[in-house]
Amino acid sequence: MFFGTKKTVNLLTIVYDPGYKNTAVRKSRTTHIDGNKGELSYLGHSISHLFQNHDYEEVAHLLIWKQFPTAAQKQQFRKNVAREMVPSDSVVRIIQDFDPSTEAYLMIAAGLCAWAASKPECIPVHAGDGLYLGNSEATDAAIYRSIAALMTVTAIVSCCKEKTPFVADVDPTVSPIDNMLRMMKRVDAHGNVDQKTSTTVNKLCILFADHEMTNSTAAFLHAASSLSDPISSSASAILASQGPLHAGAIDLAFRRFAQIRDARGGVKKHLEDAKAGRCRVMGVGHRVYRTVDPRITHLKQLLEQFAVEIAGNPLLEVAMEIEHAVQADEYFTSRNLGINVDLYGSFVYAALGLHSSIFTPMAIIARSAGIYSYWRESMHEVPCLWRPRQVYTGHGSVAK
């Protein structure tokens, strides 16, 4: 298959860049990060401004459609997502067939695949066409469908983990997040979502809505570069996110704090082991930031709102001790290794009463806004299959 203008390619020119540390794969005006100054902005709006003045729906609309929604557009966004939030029986069955102890990300990936399978007409190969390339209407419909699938599947998994029945309780007048929380049973006696819970999840999602070309975002776009459908590509992002070097660090940090609490020597011993190369300190250091992660301040503000719920939490005390020790240790300060959102992110989710296995999927739900914004951009560009090169290190040529 050939698109665009034919160009001669010099096959001898290969850039060797392990981990793509210095390689940019696309252009976008969506998110800007200044790692040296500790700045993060979406479409020119600082993360602080967005956190203080907007909800997640508005930020998602800004990222995907490059503008804040009007009141009418916001209500239409809710209707469009709600319309797609009722899963087929096959999706529910596949997720419920897993043992409840199964890792959540595997259940979610399977659920997304089942969701895609339930709508074969939305899969390009099945339809015999590119479907979404250059088609704004089809692309936007797929984005609503993908947001709905990701949130609903996560709600089903949450119910499985907590051994509660799943009910597709969807209200087209409320936000997708509130509908997800309703399906997760985060409601009062009257079936209404607690306002504090809703606001907190909205604010958390704003902080995680996009972070430029992260590993999971790149995994999605890599899969989608073959012109695959966005729900199938979302499964790629979910699976990539779970590694301890990416979003899985949120969950791993929470588990590591328990190990540190129970271990002899505690935080001091853990940091000494890290400096000796015997382990990693979760929640410290960042691939991009060389100063304070700008999201940390706002994450701490959310924690303060749950002072009663987290009071005396021994794991939080471990996290705070790590922060204080890192800030006072020349080994970390001289290397610009500050704390990141993984250090405290899990405690807000825990204060909300969410199952620990759902912490990382919640971050991916937030990140979907950024992911789908880049996918939408790519559907209006000349398609380019992501196919990196490899440097051969074997001996000699193939035997004749």
From TrEMBL:
A GO cellular component annotation in the UniProt record: mitochondrial matrix
PROSITE patterns linked: CITRATE_SYNTHASE
Alphabetical GO biological process terms: carbohydrate metabolic process; tricarboxylic acid cycle
UniProtKB keywords: Transferase
GO-annotated molecular function: acyltransferase activity, acyl groups converted into alkyl on transfer
Record family assignment: Belongs to the citrate synthase family.
Name of the protein described by the UniProt record: Citrate synthase
